[in-house]
Q: What sequence folds into this?
């Protein structure tokens, strides 16, 4: 079914009053559809049952070749009503009052598109096309990477020369650490089917049981077969409830805990000497004078500047070690020690790591992490002895100012165990099945000039600075998902000459738009994505509701008005066929997908994928680089613990003693709390607070309270919960301003890059400098320079009772 | 031998995700505010809060629905025979036969509090174990929705069925056994330990 053709002949009144139809019918049709996502990135293929043009039920779609991954969580099941939700945007509308006044006038698609195109052209004439920003591929349009989840908007942005905001907002910690240590953001963890082979699984900073339920099934299966589950995190959530051992550490002290464990592991010999020697930078000599790796050319004028140098402990001499080499005949590289080579004082990188770890003896670690000393001992011994073990680092680690340092410490700890690249092992933020690739470039980039690219965490500054004059927001809700919504309302949006929002429902951001356009849900369009070794043709199950149009159709109609119509003549089928033209799409064509129920398995490994099984890491040295000399200038060549600038130990804590943070729960991952069934289970926001903190403030259960700091305020009811670490208050992410008595939590949270630009973690300036090539090469959404989480949980507040 | 359908829950594997409750709600078109299937938290005072004092905490979940008792007190008190037992053991409440809000006797008789009052329709409602799906050879919606191997459904009279095996393996027991209503919904040890 071609969504373009279906939409064009569509009368909006036909389905306007269609109810969610009865369940029992004999004329059911079934469609394979990618889960609307809700932002969990599990991307489960679903099976939608359609009766008389309406979705009546959603079940899991069986996964060819991986039946154990057949899955739909409550969010997926409840998503059957997504096309019919009350807040659905039904027709194009334009603002007729002040921005945010709620005064709208319904307009035709013609008028809407003409107005947008005229404005784009006039801004482009005056300021250049890069003054128009296309912000898209937000979570409500996942699965990412398809034609409508960023594909069509990228194509238009590239052809017109718009600015695109790239990167994802929360991926600072474990992914950056993956890049530093393994040379790959997503490397270092085996696929979840392998977790059953682990003696111990550590879930570190992630509520997997609620946010990535399909993965958590593998954890429970492993537990049933004897694997020990250790959960590290401050909150007693569903994941902690399932743990064999829960480590309730102080927020943002993760790096100290990892270094404390590392210290005891090295002290007690609980590491793999041979692996550390062959597959980490451990034996490489580091110059005392400048912190760089000693190169062969430093000690021998004829030597190569590429080659590293190790100390051979059998012949007592320095030996050059080329990159991507693991052993040399008759050479036994020393892991420990201090050496002087050709007058240059050096330490092995491993010695430096050991010295760094020694700064975290158990007592110090216990104090930083607010854990009993015995816990540090027992944890180090347990993890140190249990080979192999899997460490799954969560996005929670990204939500603190030094999330990269904390995650690097964890990966450094894991690197000396020899577990990375072996079954039952791995240490990373990303654990996924093999998935075939799509040939996205010709679709995303056409053959045209490239868009100007800004990182997501800094993008709004370009508006404040006057470089961006118009913003087209596709399926994204920055006000509800970016920190400090007040900055957007008061400083970003007023600077825009044009704000267009395309979405399926009315959002906080849409309320401030000049023109709002109704987009399609994934049930109403055809798209393509890959997951679990399979390629999925996400089939259009129902006609677009009301006047909704897909991103692809909107971009096509805009392109025609921008003089770019010749680049938008291909049908959906033609574009999807192009995307399937990739060597990993073995035997898969659009025709075959249609014949095979929309889902086919590519030539994918039958067993769990072991990341870096060949131990050929993608770093320049080919080894795990726990030592990063390029971060030496800011004292972070090795991971360490740093207290976040705002936190319970900062000066601000005197005025605002409580740490406030938000989290994903099972009911909704992002700001999509509009499904009636899940909303019934979780009807209103409640501030969770430990009864201890309530007692000292004379607060009672159910009191209306004011949560505030210098950035903003929020009025909400409180509920007591022992799950909260004393000193912390919490609310689930996803609520809209109208759900609160007053204010919103997005006004409280700390942006990692405040408008004064003084807040940025300096490491990220360095990362962006050295990883620039990724930004330039990246044609796919999201493969942009990673980095900074743009919203931190280093957020101090005070809570007071209020009457209204 | 006649069938006797029943359920066994492995609470070790229940993460309280509520997929079962949501699937029930959708399948049975349960009115807003009513729930024929709930997941109760075994823990603190509120849903999804733990028992204990930080950091010594514990929390489990228990799917709760009509227990389809073999000796169902609700059936005994119903004046209009709206509640009957099928040959396969399902205790069925036919809303068409319910005499409505003036009676409510079944809701008082049920020791598990799982019979709901549908004020808008003026009838009592409870889980009928998706008998309409069972008649099509399918599983109840809540069972179908559980992908965590926490829910087992089948014929308790068949010693080879997965539900019979799990009943033994988990040493599962009903809630409030002492009430003597002989329920056919069983819970692994977490409930009664």
A:
């Amino acid at each position: 079914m071609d969504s373009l053709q279906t939409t064009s002949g569509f009368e909006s009144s036909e389905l306007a009053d269609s109810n969610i139809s009865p369940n029992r019918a004999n004329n059911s049709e079934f469609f394979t559809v990618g889960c609307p996502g809700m932002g969990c990135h599990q991307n489960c293929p679903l099976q939608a049952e359609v009766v008389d043009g309406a979705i009546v039920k959603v079940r899991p779609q069986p996964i060819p070749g991986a039946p154990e991954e057949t899955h739909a969580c409550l969010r997926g099941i409840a998503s059957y009503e997504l096309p019919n939700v009350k807040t659905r945007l039904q027709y194009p509308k334009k603002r007729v009052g002040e921005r945010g006044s709620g005064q709208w006038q319904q307009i035709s698609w013609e008028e809407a598109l003409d107005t947008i195109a005229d404005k784009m052209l006039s801004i482009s004439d005056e300021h250049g096309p890069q003054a128009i920003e296309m912000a898209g591929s937000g979570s409500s349009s996942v699965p990412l990477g398809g034609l409508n989840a960023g594909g069509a908007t990228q194509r238009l942005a590239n052809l017109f020369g718009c600015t695109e905001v790239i990167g994802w907002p929360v991926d600072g910690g474990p992914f950056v650490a993956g890049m530093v240590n393994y040379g790959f953001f997503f490397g270092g963890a085996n696929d979840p089917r392998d977790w059953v082979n682990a003696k111990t699984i550590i879930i570190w900073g992630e509520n997997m049981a609620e946010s990535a339920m399909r993965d958590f099934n593998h954890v429970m299966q492993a537990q049933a077969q004897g694997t020990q589950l250790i959960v590290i995190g401050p909150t007693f959530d569903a994941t902690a409830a399932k743990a064999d051992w829960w480590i309730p550490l102080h927020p943002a002290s993760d790096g100290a805990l990892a270094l404390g464990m590392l210290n005891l592991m090295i002290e007690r010999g609980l590491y793999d000497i041979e692996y550390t020697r062959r597959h980490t930078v451990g034996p490489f000599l580091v110059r005392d004078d400048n912190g760089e790796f000693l190169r062969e050319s430093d000690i021998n004028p004829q030597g190569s500047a590429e080659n590293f140098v190790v100390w051979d402990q059998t012949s007592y001499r320095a030996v050059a070690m080329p990159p991507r080499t693991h052993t040399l005949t008759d050479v036994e590289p020393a892991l420990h020690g201090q050496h002087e080579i050709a007058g240059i004082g050096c330490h092995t990188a491993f010695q430096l790591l050991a010295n760094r770890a020694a700064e975290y003896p158990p007592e110090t670690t216990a104090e930083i992490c607010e854990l009993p000393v015995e816990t540090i001992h027992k944890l180090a011994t347990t993890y140190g002895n249990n080979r192999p073990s899997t460490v799954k680092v969560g996005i929670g680690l990204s939500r603190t100012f030094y999330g990269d340092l904390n995650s690097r410490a964890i990966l450094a700890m894991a690197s000396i165990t020899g577990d990375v690249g072996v079954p039952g092992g791995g240490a990373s933020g990303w654990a996924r099945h093999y998935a075939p690739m799509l040939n996205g470039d010709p679709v995303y980039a056409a053959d045209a000039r490239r868009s100007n690219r800004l990182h997501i965490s800094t993008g709004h500054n370009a508006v404040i600075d006057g470089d961006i004059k118009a913003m087209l927001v596709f399926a994204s809700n920055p006000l509800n998902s970016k920190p400090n919504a007040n900055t957007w309302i008061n400083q970003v949006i007023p600077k825009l000459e044009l704000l267009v929002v395309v979405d399926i429902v009315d959002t906080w951001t849409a309320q401030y738009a000049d023109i709002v356009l109704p987009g399609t849900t994934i049930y109403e369009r055809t798209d393509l994505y890959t997951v679990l070794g399979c390629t999925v043709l996400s089939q259009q199950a129902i006609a677009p509701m009301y006047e909704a149009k897909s991103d692809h159709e909107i971009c096509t109609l805009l392109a025609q008005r921008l003089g770019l119509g010749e680049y938008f003549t291909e049908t959906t089928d033609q574009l999807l066929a192009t995307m399937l033209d990739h060597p990993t799409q073995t035997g898969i064509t659009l025709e075959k997908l249609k014949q095979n129920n929309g889902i086919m398995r590519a030539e994918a490994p039958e067993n769990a994928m072991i990341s870096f099984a060949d131990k050929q890491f993608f770093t320049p040295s080919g080894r795990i680089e726990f030592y990063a000399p390029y971060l030496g200038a800011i004292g972070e060549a090795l991971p360490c613990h740093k207290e976040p600038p705002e936190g319970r130990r900062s000066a601000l804590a005197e005025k605002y003693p409580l740490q406030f943070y938000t989290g994903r729960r099972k009911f909704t991952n992002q700001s999509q709390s509009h499904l009636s069934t899940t909303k019934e289970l979780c009807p209103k926001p409640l501030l969770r607070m430990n009864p201890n903190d309530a007692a000292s403030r004379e607060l009672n259960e159910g009191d209306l309270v004011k949560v505030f700091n210098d950035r903003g305020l929020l009025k909400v009811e409180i509920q007591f919960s022992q799950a909260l670490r004393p000193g912390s208050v919490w609310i689930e992410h996803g609520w809209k301003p109208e759900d609160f008595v007053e204010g919103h939590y997005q006004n409280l949270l700390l942006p990692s890059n405040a408008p004064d630009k003084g807040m940025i973690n300096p490491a990220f300036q360095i990362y962006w400098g050295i990883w620039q090539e990724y930004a330039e090469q990246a044609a796919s959404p999201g493969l942009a320079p990673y980095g900074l989480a743009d919203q931190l949980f280093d957020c101090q507040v005070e809570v007071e009772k209020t009457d209204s | 031998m006649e069938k006797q359908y029943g359920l066994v829950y492995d609470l070790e594997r229940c993460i309280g995700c509520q997929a079962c409750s949501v699937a029930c709600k959708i399948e049975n078109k349960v009115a807003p505010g009513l729930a024929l299937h709930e997941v109760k938290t075994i823990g603190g005072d509120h849903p999804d809060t733990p028992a204990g004092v930080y950091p010594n905490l514990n929390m489990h979940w228990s799917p709760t629905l009509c227990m389809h008792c073999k000796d169902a007190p609700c059936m005994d008190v119903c004046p209009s025979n709206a509640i009957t037992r099928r040959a396969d053991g399902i205790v069925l409440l036919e809303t068409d036969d319910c005499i409505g809000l003036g009676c409510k006797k079944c809701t008082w008789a049920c020791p598990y509090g799982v019979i709901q009052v549908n004020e808008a329709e003026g009838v009592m409602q409870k889980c009928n174990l998706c008998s309409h799906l069972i008649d099509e050879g399918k599983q109840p919606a809540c069972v179908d929705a559980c992908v965590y191997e926490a829910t087992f459904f089948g014929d308790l009279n068949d010693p080879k069925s997965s539900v019979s095996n799990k009943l033994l393996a988990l040493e599962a027991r009903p809630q409030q056994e002492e009430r003597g209503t002989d329920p056919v919904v069983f819970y692994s040890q977490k409930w009664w330990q």
Summary: Residues 109-127 of chain A form the longest helix (19 residues). Chain A touches chain B through 50 residues (CB under 8 Å). The CA atoms of residues 196 and 222 of chain A lie 4 Å apart. Chain A is about 25% helix and 20% strand.
